[in-house]
């Protein structure tokens, strides 16, 4: 245990004492009482200013300089005087080793200063794992979802949780369950995918795992399900407006919330930045109260997104002052404010005039009570501070690194392979082969893990680049590296003259090697100021109208392809790209590795060499053309029909464009061949409810071990309102050795087959279609019909 | 009067008699009674089958072969047995001269056959005017709106009305008041523009003019306001789903309906194809009853779009059979079915079982009553059949042609002119000049007036192409024409080899002439089968993901520009195009002539030569990049903010893209220079209400006469829900001679400044911003602030 000063010493003594005894004469210190009882008691003892203080926090306690944390005492004290509920670590390129002692110090000091002994709770995002440097750098959310491996994801979530715990983080601002609706949104890489069922499955496991209770009965890490409710704003812009419609909200966007609330009870929820039908979520009483509290049954804390309350006044202009914004947000149901820098808006409620307003008092009381419950539930009043020793033993331990390797291996998605892969070691490089590999492109020698990854893409401490993994595996002499374009942050407006030479060098490298692996992508870096600029692409704050590769990357690819060199294209980004016909046909193999974390390079090289058989599947459809969206496999029936030409001519006028392009949701290739046979559907009774049972025999008909994802989709033949042409309802990832078969059975309670109509759950009876197969593409599916009679 | 057979003779005799006497013992024949009273009486006399028959009609009475109408007696009789409320002319490339006698014959025969003497009413679209060949070919809707000249548009609408009357058309399926929301929608050329106020102004004048009463008190032509409610379906696809949200519906899409219903009372309304929030409009009781009948107060007939009821079963699958679809549509409030070919779905209601269902009977009765009211109101029971003599004297009379020339001249929008224009006659061709003009491009020698234009683009009988107008004006020897690409319907997939030669020829022509006018566009032809194919672009049934010029037109343009020849780019289409930086900077002048009808060529040539000073303004914003949409000047405040880079970097990540691109709503250039000065705003009392009065002095500071559009925009500073950054609220087109000034005053009642919040009209009090100027661009506007106090 780290002891920094007298205050901390006192704290530690107190805490240990509390943990040992159970009853206390002061109810809020009595650990035998429930969090709700303790919160109610404590609330009754608090002054108005103490209450308002709990509505916000000090999210960025530290700064950074020269790779080390800095601390500004004046700023800190100014902030915590008025907002002191939670605290955050701040800049993510600071290192855990440096931060923990400093944070322990601040926490102890603050507790000592607190009249009633109310501790901070540390809050942090947790996307790729720990939100400061020094933890295991897991893949981004869309990468992990591409594994379609829920049990493995649970283990990864446990590792992420334990690394947070080791840093004293007991509240994460994750998971992000926004359903991808617009390929232009720069945050899609933070999301699981385009399907609400798949998102709900992953998110629920994340929440359950994070919120697991320890031996004291304390929730390990409280989670925040977010952003209620979002999927893509106007133009693909993060904070832009969204359309409304209660059926759309409940059926397209809310299912992950519904599932998570019912099955995993996330302790908090973050309202989205967007306005829905003109009403920003921060003041959207209808969606926060009627829908979220009412229809969806959420009982936890509702918090704001960063600065969202301020934006009511400064951006959407639905409040005429900071104070007006605070009062409106409180009245709508926001209970806690996330305000990264400076004075939060809820702080204005300290004005004594508000203590005289019963409505405001009641809302503040309820907000503080809900927040204190989280602190009691997570044991913040009793837990000892984390020790540096425990932190060192936890972060990046062997088990975590192994889990990271495993999920990265399963998250790479192979989209094309004409037989070029796997590469034969004996034909290349150090193993005695004669050839070399040209490793090309601006994303070949960096770590591109997303803007919630606490990693500098150019800093080798965060993992191997693809180039380095190749060099380690095959020897430096077997690899010819060329960046191919002049900048990592490609400029759209530049005349590209500097690139001409770089492209020419890349082509020469490809010709000399005889084989090219070209890594293209988008996005670079995280929230650190050094990565923020006008050339940035993808990631939060940057929507992209153009779905091609930014800058001159396509020209680089075309030049290599024009040279006739066998080429493997690797995409490394949180977004989908438009692959033109020439790219699709001329690249010999294509991968999307998304934002795969520190083992991107290792896992890709293992896969290209055949040591690992790829098993990732797309969780989002790749559009065929700029502007040719939305594309998602679960479009509505009327979205894919019409027109006066042939059926093919419709959708968008270019004949080869379709609403269901070939690189579709659920699609991904393997080195082995799977077949499915003897698909059956039946209606069965299980306890008190009916289930649809679908089974199919999966066979590995190829020569190597591999994993396949058996996917089950459905739709009622006729519906009350429009229903997607098909919806995913179950999936299972199955490993089979060559020649082996397995009967895979998937069961779905009939009650799950419904959908909301004007806020009421509706289940259609009659004919249903079920499809089972290896992707959402018609050619990969077997259709099964079943009639579901009314049980009324 | 045309008399074809005995039946018609009888009819004519009867009709004349009816017109002369006023009272009749049979109430429904008594012209002194109101249409409602007569309809009620007639309804009471009708059998169930007669009633159901009125729910549909024979929309395509004729076919076409060799340019002449054909008639299939069997098909006709089969149809009219079960659906006989209205009749349509059918194929629009048949000619009025041929059609009128045939139609008169059918009408007379049908009336003679009718037990109760219930006549047909002829229904037709009326976009470019008459919906068969032989009338004046006016510009498409977006062209006429680009004139911003409401008084002139009223005169055009009167001419269109009179040509319809001359053909016996007393019910038009226009105006289309859909507010343009998505640049990919192939029907945008049928719409007025992106602004709901402007759409409402034009539409209301169309309706008032069409529905003017004649000397007998009869409505001349009943109108159909459509499509309730639409603006752009998913992906820009016409029949695809739309999002919901009552604020969006009422504030963004419904204003033209609200204005038209209050001020012009259109007699019918067409429900849109789309589903809104999952519920197709054809069964959307909430929108048709609560919103349309309730909030918006519509009292006329609600009809289906073509085949829309069938699509409930075959496409959106919210009905399990044709009959189910018919019953659901009827129950939701559809009262009349548009079913172009074959047996309509409402015909299934003939089954006697429905006569035993009081709910169905009541709905059918109300539907028939509403429809008969239109027939009585338009005088269908009394009017004589139109004579061929009158038709010949009306169609294409001098006044109509002059109006057409005038509105075409005002509808051309000049987007760039670096001083090249106007061209000096003395420098070109036949006038004694030495130079020539190369007239280039696949749209230079056709008439491209939209798919509701009854015109074959290649048939010279429908007007001059741009090439022909040039040749007539300057002499054949002054013009070098080259098509430049091999097809009118450019192929996206073709390798373009055939075009290489054509492009080279065009470049040679440009070089030889020394000046190029290059005409690019999209769309070709109308609903005639010969124009329906997979290569078609734009127009109904064809959305376009790509907003560039279809086919190899951009390559043609680039090749001409590369050759260094001074070039005028002319766009001829119903859509916006993305003009890349190179096009914008290298073209010396740019026009969008939209779908300007038979005088496209004449008006353009007059304008290029300076005989006419252009005065058109965009009614829809031109996006800057594929995928860089929505773009409209009236975006919501939160749609244009955010991001971590500079403000410029936001929206979409390419630095030069913005939500408010320079070729914006309201923008258009003139050959003269207008200035506005001394702008003032004040709050005044007018009778019983307060008005905001804005005045500004407009001065023609240039050397030639010209017209400028004074535009007034506003927004409350703070609003209850999100409100656009600015909204158009008044405009006036003003003509000034050089050096002249005029004080232009625009008044807006305060009650008009509100918007709907959850279905309630809301007016914010407090600070307001008004902007007056020549376009929606900030640099063209003067800001005026005014405070509107609460009058409560």
UniProtKB/TrEMBL annotation, chains A, B:
Signal peptide, first to last residue: 1-17
UniProt catalytic activity: Hydrolysis of terminal, non-reducing beta-D-glucosyl residues with release of beta-D-glucose
EC number: 3.2.1.21
GO BP: any one term: polysaccharide catabolic process
Domain of life of the native organism: Eukaryota
Pfam families for this protein: Fn3-like, Glyco_hydro_3, Glyco_hydro_3_C
Nucleotide-binding recorded as keyword: no
Pathway stated in the Swiss-Prot or TrEMBL entry: Glycan metabolism; cellulose degradation
Keywords: Carbohydrate metabolism, Glycoprotein, Glycosidase, Hydrolase, Polysaccharide degradation, Signal
InterPro entries (alphabetical): Cellulose_deg_GH3 (IPR050288), Fn3-like (IPR026891), GH (IPR017853), Glyco_hydro_3_C (IPR002772), Glyco_hydro_3_C_sf (IPR036881), Glyco_hydro_3_N (IPR001764), Glyco_hydro_3_N_sf (IPR036962), Ig-like_fold (IPR013783)
Example of a GO MF term: beta-glucosidase activity
Domain Fibronectin type III-like: 708-776
PANTHER family, alphabetized: BETA-GLUCOSIDASE (PTHR42715:SF10)
Family named by the database record: Belongs to the glycosyl hydrolase 3 family.
Protein name: beta-glucosidase
Organism of origin: Cephalotrichum gorgonifer
């Amino acid at each position: 245990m780290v002891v920094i000063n007298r205050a901390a010493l006192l704290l530690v003594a107190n805490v240990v004492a509390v943990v040992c005894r159970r009853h206390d004469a002061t109810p809020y210190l009595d650990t035998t009482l429930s969090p709700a009882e303790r919160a109610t008691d404590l609330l009754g003892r608090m002054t108005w200013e103490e209450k308002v203080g709990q509505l916000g926090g000090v999210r960025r306690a530290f700064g950074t300089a020269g790779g080390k944390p800095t601390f500004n005492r004046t700023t800190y004290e100014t902030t915590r005087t008025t907002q002191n509920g939670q605290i955050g670590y701040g800049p993510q390129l600071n290192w855990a080793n440096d931060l923990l002692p400093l944070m322990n110090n601040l926490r102890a000091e603050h507790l000592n200063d607190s009249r009633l002994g109310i501790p901070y709770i540390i809050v942090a995002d947790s996307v790729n794992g720990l939100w400061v440097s020094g933890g295991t750098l897991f893949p981004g959310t869309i990468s992990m979802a591409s594994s379609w491996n829920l049990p493995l994801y649970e283990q990864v979530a446990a590792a992420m949780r334990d690394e947070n715990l080791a840093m004293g983080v007991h509240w994460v601002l994750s998971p992000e369950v926004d359903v991808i609706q617009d390929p232009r949104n720069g945050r899609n890489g933070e999301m699981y995918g385009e399907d609400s069922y798949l998102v709900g499955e992953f998110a629920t496991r994340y929440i359950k795992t994070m919120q697991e209770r320890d031996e004291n009965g304390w929730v390990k890490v409280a989670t925040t399900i977010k952003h209620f409710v979002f999927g893509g704003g106007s133009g693909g812009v993060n904070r832009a407006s969204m359309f409304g419609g209660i059926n759309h909200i409940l059926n397209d966007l809310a299912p992950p919330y519904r599932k998570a609330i019912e099955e995993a009870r996330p302790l908090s929820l973050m309202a989205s930045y967007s306005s829905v039908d003109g009403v920003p979520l921060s003041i959207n009483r209808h969606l926060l109260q009627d829908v979220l509290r009412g229809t969806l049954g959420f009982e936890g804390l509702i918090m704001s997104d960063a600065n969202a309350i301020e934006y009511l006044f400064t951006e959407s202009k639905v409040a005429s002052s900071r104070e007006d914004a605070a009062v409106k947000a409180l009245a709508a149901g926001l209970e806690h404010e996330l305000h990264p820098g400076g004075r939060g808006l809820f702080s204005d409620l300290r004005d004594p005039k508000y203590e005289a307003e019963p409505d405001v008092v009641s809302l503040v009381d309820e907000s503080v009570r809900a927040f204190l419950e989280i602190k009691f539930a997570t044991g913040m009043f009793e837990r000892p501070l984390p020790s540096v020793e425990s932190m060192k033993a936890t972060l990046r331990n062997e088990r975590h690194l192994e889990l990271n390797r495993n999920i990265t291996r399963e998250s790479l998605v192979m989209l094309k392979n004409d037989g070029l892969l796997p590469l034969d070691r004996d034909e290349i490089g150090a193993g005695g082969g004669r050839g070399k590999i040209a490793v090309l492109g601006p994303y070949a020698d960096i770590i591109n893990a997303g803007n919630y990854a606490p990693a500098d893409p150019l800093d080798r401490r965060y993992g191997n680049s693809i180039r380095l993994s190749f060099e380690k595996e095959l020897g430096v002499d077997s690899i010819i590296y060329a960046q191919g374009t002049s900048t990592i942050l490609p400029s759209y407006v530049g005349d590209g003259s500097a690139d001409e030479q770089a492209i020419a060098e890349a082509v020469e490298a490809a010709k000399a090697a005889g084989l090219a692996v070209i890594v293209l992508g988008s996005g670079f870096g995280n929230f650190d100021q050094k990565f923020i600029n006008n050339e940035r692409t993808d990631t939060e704050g940057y929507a992209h109208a153009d779905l091609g590769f930014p800058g001159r990357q396509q020209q680089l690819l075309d030049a290599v392809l024009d040279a006739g060199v066998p080429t493997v294209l690797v995409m490394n980004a949180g977004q989908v790209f438009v692959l033109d016909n020439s790219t699709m046909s001329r690249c010999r193999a294509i991968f999307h590795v998304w934002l795969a974390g520190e083992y991107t390079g290792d896992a890709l090289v293992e896969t290209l060499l055949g040591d690992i058989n790829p098993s990732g599947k797309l969780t989002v459809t790749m559009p065929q053309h700029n502007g040719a969206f939305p594309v998602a496999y679960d479009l509505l029936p009327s979205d894919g029909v019409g027109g006066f030409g042939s059926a093919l001519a419709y959708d968008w006028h270019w004949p080869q464009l379709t609403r269901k392009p070939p690189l579709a949701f659920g699609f991904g290739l393997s080195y082995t061949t799977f077949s499915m046979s003897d698909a059956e559907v039946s209606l069965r009774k299980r306890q008190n409810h009916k289930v649809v049972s679908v089974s199919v025999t999966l066979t590995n008909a190829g020569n190597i071990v591999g994993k396949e994802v058996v996917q089950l989709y459905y739709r009622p033949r006729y519906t009350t309102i429009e229903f997607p042409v098909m919806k995913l309802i179950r999936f299972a990832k199955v490993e089979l050795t060559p020649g082996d078969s397995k009967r895979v059975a998937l069961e779905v309670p009939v009650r799950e087959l419904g959908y909301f109509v004007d806020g009421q759950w509706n289940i259609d009876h009659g004919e249903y279609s079920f499809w089972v197969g290896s992707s959402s593409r018609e050619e990969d599916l077997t259709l099964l019909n079943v009639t579901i009679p009314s049980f009324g």
